[in-house]
Amino acid sequence: MAGPGSLLLEPVYDILIGDADGRHLWLECLQDLVIARQRLSVLAGQYPGTRLVLRDHKTRAILAETDGY
Asked: Of these four, 20, 22, 39, 58, which has the most CB atoms within 10 Å of its CB?
């Protein structure tokens, strides 16, 4: 059970696939922005031509995105 002094951290950043209908399909949740940006680049190489979105988990603000459909 997690208490006030718990070391469990909530995810802060989401990496999503943006589909052709404008919906976002979840890929990963990360806690560090630098690592999230690196993962976005790696995933962009794995999913060429696909729009990937890095967004803040709480505010849903888009921080970065790749080109894609």
From this structure: 39
